[in-house]
Amino acid sequence: MVQGNRWKMAANPLRTALALLFFALSGVLGTGKISCINEEGEAVDWFVFYKLPKKVGEDIGLQYMFLDSTMASWRKSRQLVSSKESILGRTLAQLYEAYASKRNDTAYLIYNDGIPESQNYNRKYGHTKGLLVWNRVQGFWLIHSVPGFSPVPEDGFIYPSSGRKNGQSGICITFKYSQFKAIDSQLLIYQPNIRSCSIPNTFHRELIHMPQLCAKSSSSKIHGRQLTKLQSAQGLNFLHFAKSSSYSDDIFAAWMAQHLKTHLLANTWQWKAYALPSNCSLPYHVYNIKKLKTPDQFYFPSSSDHSKWCVSTKNSRHQWVCIGDLNRSKYQVFRSGGFICTKNRYIYQSFYRLVVSYEPCD
Description:
By secondary structure, the protein is an alpha+beta fold. It has helices at residues 2-29, 87-101, 180-190, 209-215, 251-260, 345-352, and strands at 36-37, 43-44, 46-51, 64-68, 75-76, 107-112, 129-134, 138-144, 168-176, 194-198, 225-231, 237-243, 264-267, 286-293, 299-301, 309-312, 321-324, 337-342, 355-358.
């Protein structure tokens, strides 16, 4: 009996330790891996989408095509971009699930200078549109061009009417939590117009600026521009360019093309007299795209496209593709925003093949 009691007494601490370890691990393993989601409902490392311009008399302006990390070229969606089964709807479902569960282990930040159901822009903030959802394992960053697309949890997934007429584009990237500290610093440069946010205290030690931006109380010094390297959850490398309003120059010609050492074909919203012409004054040139076509031969002018992206010219030594926030505009030289760039060949080739013509330099 004495020997049995000794074994029982010795076993109890071991059993207790194992139980504590189990509960600790279950807390970590039970935290879902938030990520970009494709149309099949599968987690993917990244995706890009292209909402096509409205075809006169043919549709309601909600057709789109997409490319994700499991594919090599554009695929036209069977869904409308406004559907909860679309690539955006499936990805953002994670935001609404976390919100409904009232968990304090998930954070989100939604920003857009275009106010929903309004034609006015809040020029106090950066010309930036996007959202982030993450936990302490990983999350995603969606950068897009859609005015008024602020799908706050209280309202659920709504694609705005302001995003129908013109073409729109965006990129979603899955990042490990370790990358969010760098993203945090880039967003400070952006000074985005926060539409909705929730960042529990558990994130405040590593992430300084996003909680301040969320509370609209940031007093940190803002640099004129900042470049950082990012890496997706599966190891795809990116460069992210962020400029503040104090950096008053064309981000394409003055910074991106010269740093990437490549001539760029730029597709941005060219609005009336404010558009900047193609620029060949520096070693690496920037040309405005004038006409585009989809793989199924739908041609459209850049004047009907609100997307913001650029690609290296065909004969450039370095073949980059960048997707982001800013237009080549005299006015937006003074706005904050940025671009995320990669040399992924499938993203590059897919965007480059959209180009039909561009504007030469004078």
